[in-house]
Specification:
Length: 210
């Protein structure tokens, strides 16, 4: 891929290890859950950074990466200046590396609150989340994603506040069914769609009717 050099350069500049792809079957990830998940791959940092500027999201918001892997998106969110940043990951090995990355990253504010890496189930987390911005990098099966969407819609209604969903996939991969599934979900209204540094980004708002 043409953007590989930019993906790796993030690790070089910020002193972390977030590059490379990890098959969850090679970790102690619950084997019964493998059908719901894919592999870990890093988002293009420069692309996500630019997207956040385009969306102009309020820094007072709380950001969560559902299926955070090695924590790259969380580091970019902290650099952006969100009030609170959370990463949720079920694989213990990936959580450990993500926490190490948070501790040693040279991005301002990284390694300090508000970045919190949680080893846990995304579905359970969504039941109690009070976050404003939800980030997903093609981490789940279609059925699992549909369950996540239903839970996010329920949280927006329960909290009586809108939320933002950012979904991304890497160009060059066959587009998953997830993009069309979100588009068909009447609760999520597209606010952005575009390609940045080899990454396809989609942003949606949920709960605007509240």
């Amino acid at each position: 891929m043409a953007d590989d050099q930019h993906i790796r350069s993030f690790d070089h500049w910020y002193g972390v290890r977030t590059s490379g792809h990890v098959e969850l079957s090679e970790t102690s990830f619950d084997p019964l859950r493998l059908k719901d998940a894919t592999s870990y791959g890093p988002v293009n940092a420069w692309g996500l950074r630019k997207l956040l500027r385009i969306l102009d999201l309020p820094a007072s918001g709380a950001f969560v990466d559902l299926g955070c892997g090695l924590g790259r998106a969380c580091l970019i969110a902290a650099e952006y200046g969100f009030e609170r940043v959370t990463g949720v990951e079920l694989a213990p090995e990936l959580c450990k590396v993500a926490r190490d990355n948070v501790a040693k990253c040279r991005i301002p504010r990284a390694g300090k609150p508000p970045i919190n890496i949680i080893e846990g189930d995304v579905l359970h987390y969504c039941d109690y989340s009070v976050d404003d911005i939800f980030f997903i990098y093609r981490a789940f099966s279609l059925d699992f994603l549909l369950t996540v969407l239903a839970k996010l819609e329920a949280r927006a209604a329960a909290l009586k506040k809108p939320l933002t969903l950012i979904y991304t996939e890497r160009l060059g991969w066959p587009q998953s069914e997830c993009v069309s599934a979100i588009a068909k979900d009447g609760a999520f209204h597209k606010s952005y769609a575009g390609t940045i540094w080899g990454q396809a980004f989609f942003a949606y708002r949920c709960g605007e009717w509240l």
